[in-house]
Amino acid sequence: MKLDAPVTGGPCWTELGTTDLEAAQRFYTRLFGWRPETDPRQEAGGYTVAHLGDAAVAALAPLYQPSQPVAWNVSFAVADADAAVREVTEAGGTVLFGPTDVFDAGRFAVAADPAGAAFQLWQAGTFPGAGLFNAPGSLGWAELYTRDPEQAVAFYSRVFGWTVNASERYTQWGVDGADFGGMVTMDDKFPPEVPAHWLPYFAVADVDATTAVVQALGDVLMVPTSLPGGRRIAVLRDPQGAMFGVYRADTP
C-alpha cells in the first residue's frame, strides 16, 4: 500500500467483529504481537484497540447485532459521513447503520455496495485512524471480492473518487494514484454462498511462519503463494471464522 497515513477516501482502520473477544485477543496477540486495550466505559461495549508500540493498528469487538457476521471490516476515511451515505444510496448502495457519533472520536456508518459487500465510513474527530500502515502486524492492503467488477468500479469511483489501475491480471484501487488495494473477480471457484466482501491484508515479516502458526490454531484458506513482483501472500481464517490476508513484499 502506497498510503502510510489516513487520507480522505483511503482505508483508515480495520476492525474485527467476533463471537469470542478474549480468544480473538489471544490469537492475534500471538500472531501479530499486538497489545490490546479494552475501553472500560460500559457504553463502549467491550471495544478493544490493538497497538504496536504506541500506534493503534486495529480493533476487536463483540458482535453487536445477531445478524452481524464474524468478519474483519475495513473503514474508509470521509470528510462528511452524512454526505457520504447519501452518495452511497444515490450510487445504488445500501446504508446498514448510522451515521452516528462515537463519543468524540468521530462519526461512523456501515454501508454495502450494490453487490452486498459491506464497508465502513469514518469521519475523524479526535481519532484519525490507524497510526501505522505497511509494517509487520499492521494493515497493508484492502481487497474487494465481487462478482460484478464493472459495477464495483462505477460505484466506488463515484462514492470515493478512487483512481483505478486496471490490467488483465488485476485491478488496483488508489487515491490520487497511490494504490491501497485491489479487486478480485469471484468466479466459479467461489461457492455461490460466499458473498461479496472486503478482505484486509496485514503485513508480516514471514508469510510462511505466520501461516504455520495459524495452521495450529485456525484455518488456511490459501497457502502461501508468490506473486509477480516478489510479493508473497496467504489467506487465513481465525478460530472464530473471520478471514484475513497476510503478505510480505520482497521488493522495495
TrEMBL record:
<dbReference type="InterPro" id="IPR029068">
    <property type="entry name" value="Glyas_Bleomycin-R_OHBP_Dase"/>
</dbReference>
<feature type="domain" description="VOC">
    <location>
        <begin position="138"/>
        <end position="249"/>
    </location>
</feature>
<dbReference type="InterPro" id="IPR004360">
    <property type="entry name" value="Glyas_Fos-R_dOase_dom"/>
</dbReference>
<keyword id="KW-0456">Lyase</keyword>
<dbReference type="InterPro" id="IPR052164">
    <property type="entry name" value="Anthracycline_SecMetBiosynth"/>
</dbReference>
<protein>
    <submittedName>
        <fullName>Enzyme related to lactoylglutathione lyase</fullName>
    </submittedName>
</protein>
<dbReference type="GO" id="GO:0016829">
    <property type="term" value="F:lyase activity"/>
</dbReference>
<dbReference type="InterPro" id="IPR037523">
    <property type="entry name" value="VOC_core"/>
</dbReference>
<dbReference type="Pfam" id="PF00903">
    <property type="entry name" value="Glyoxalase"/>
</dbReference>
<feature type="domain" description="VOC">
    <location>
        <begin position="10"/>
        <end position="124"/>
    </location>
</feature>
